[in-house]
Amino acid sequence: MRHIAITNLQFRYPGMASPCLDIAHFDANAGERIFLYGPSGSGKSTLLGLLGGVLSAEHGTITLLGRDFSQLSQTQRDRVRADHIGYIFQQFNLIPYLSVIENVLLPCQFSQLRQAKTLASGKTLKVEAERLLTKLDLNPTLWDRPVTQLSVGQQQRVAAARALIGKPEIIIADEPTSALDADRQAAFLELLLHECAEANALLLFVSHDRRLASHFHREIDLTSINKAVIQKILSETA
Amino acid sequence: MKHLLSLALKSAWNRRFTLSLTAIAIALSVTMLLGVERLRTQAHDSFSHSISGTDLVVGARTSPVQLMLYAVFRMGEATNNMSWTSYQAITNNPMIAWSIPISLGDSHHGFPVLGTNRQYFEHFHYGDAQQLSFLEGKPFDAIFDVVLGAEVATQRGYQLGDAITLSHGMRATGPKHNNKPFTVVGILAPTGTPVDRTVHVSLEAITAIHLDWVGGAPMPGFSIPAQYVKKFDLAPKEITATLIGLKNRAAVFKVQREINTYDKEALLSVLPGVALEQLWQVVNIAEKSLKAVSAMIVLVGLSGLIAVVLAGLNERRRELAILRSVGAKPRDVFILLTSEGLLITLIGIVFGVALLTVLALFLAPIVQSHYGTVLRAAAISINELKLLTIVLGVSLLACLIPGYRAYKLSLLDGLTPKI
Question: Is there a contact between A110 and B11 if contact means CB atoms under 8 Å apart?
C-alpha cells in the first residue's frame, strides 16, 4: 500500500475558469524522501491543502494510507490529517501562548492515535517531547522560555519535534529551511532527515531551493507534473 | 473539548491586558444590572416589612400613596391633619380592636419625631407580626420622656438619661424647641424598619412644645417654661394619622367605607397592602426604565467584547492555520473562539457579583441612614441568577459571531493563511 497515491487530480478554487492543479499521477511510499520543487504559482499550497484534506478535489482521487479522500467527509479528512501527517512550515510555526513542550504536544491533543502511540513506548507525553527536542539538538535551558524568544532556527526544531511526535506516517515540510541561514539549513536538514528515517516516515519536502535536492531519493518538479501550469505556460507563449 | 477550553484559556491569558479591560466593562455592567434588581427587591421587602397587623391607615384626605409614605414610612410631610374629635369618633366603632394615633412634623437631627400614646408599643407590629421590644428602658411616662429608635441611639450615641431637644419641621436646621428638653427613657431594639429612625414622644409632649408657638415659629417675647406646661390642657387638638386594628378582619371594607364617608371631616382610610401595591405601580415606571438602561449597558459591554475578539482575529489567522495543521477541525476553531468570548463574560460576571457584594457591604449603612432601606449583601437570589443566565445566554449568542467568522476564515485559509 502506498502512503500517497494521486490519480487524475484536478482542483480549481471557486470562481476560477480552469483548474489550477491537474496532476495525472503521483505516488509516494513509506520511508521515501521526496524533494518537491515548487516555485510560487506552481500550485504548491493547493497541493498541500489537498493532501492535508482541507481542500477537496474536483476530479480524480487522492488516497492517503489507503483512505480515499473523495469518500471521506471534511471531519474524517481532518482526522486523517491529525493522525497521520506532521507539518512543518516556513516560519511562525508555533503558538505564541503555549510553552515549548505544549507546542510539541499539540498533535497529541487533537489525535488520540498519536497520543496512544506516544504513550505506547512506555513514556509520558512530556518525556517523549523532551526526547525529541534533545534529539533535535534543542538545549533544555530553552524549554522553559516563551517560544517567541527562541531564534527562527530553534523554532523550526520545535516545529520538527511537533511534526514527529506520535510517529505520523507522513511528514510534510513546506520550505522549512528558507528562513534559516546556510549553516543552519544544513544542520536542520540533517536532523530532520535522520529523524524521519528513524521513524520510517515519508518525508515530502517542498522547496524552491534546488541545491537541497541532493539529500533526497527523488526530486519532482511540480511544474512538470502539474498540467495546469504547463497549459498556462503554453497559452502564454502561444 | 477540554483541550480546546484549555487553549482558549491560555490564549485569553496571553491577551490578558486587552481582554481584562472588556471583562471590567462587563463586570461593571453586571454590577449595575444586579444592583438595580437588588435595590428594587430589597426596597420592596423593606417596605412590606415595615408594617404588619395594621388593617387600616387613616388620615386627612389625600392620596393613598402619600398617606402611606408619611404615616408608615415617615417620608415627606403631611399636608393636612385630622382632628382629635374625628379620631375619637371613628375609633369608638365597636369593630375596632385598637388604634394608634400618630402626630408628625417635628424632627431631631433629621430623624422624624412621632407623637403617639402607649398603644404604639403594644399594638404596632412589623415584619412577620413582630412586636416592638426594648433594648433598654421602658415606654414614655412623663411628658418630656422620649423613646428612641435603635439607629437614632447608635448614630447619635445616646444613652438612657441623656437630654435631647427637638427641632420644628423636618429640617435639621429648623427652629428648635430649646426651652423644653426631653429625657431618654427607652431605646428600642433594631427592627430594620423606619421605627429605627424614629424619636417617639407622647401626644401631650407634642402639644406642650407648641404651646408658646404661633404659625410655626416661637412667639416673640413669650415662653412657657417646661415646669408650667401641666397647667395647660395638653389634650391633642389634631393628629396626623392613625393606624387601626380590627377585631375581625372581614369587616375591613365596611369600616373603611364608614371612615371614607365620615361627614364631619374629609378622611381617607386605606388598606396598607393595597396602598403599597399602588406605590409599586408608581415606582414601576422608574424601575422599568432603570432596568432597561442597565440592560443596555450590559449590551454595550458585550459589544465591546465582540469587537475586541473580532479585531484580534485577523492577527490570529496564522495561529488558526497552525491549529488546523495539527488536526483541528473548523468546528474546533469555532468552539475555541466562542468559548474565549464566553470565558471573558463569565469572568466579568464573577467580578461583577463580587463588586456588588463589596458595594453592598460598604453602602448598606449609608443607604439605611438616608432611605431607611436595609441593603443586604445577600447571596444571589433566584431572580438575579435568572438575570445572569440571560446575560450569559446573550453573550453566547454574541460570541457566535467571532466563532463563525473564525470558522469561515479557517475554511478559507486552510493551512496557509492568505494574509
Answer: no
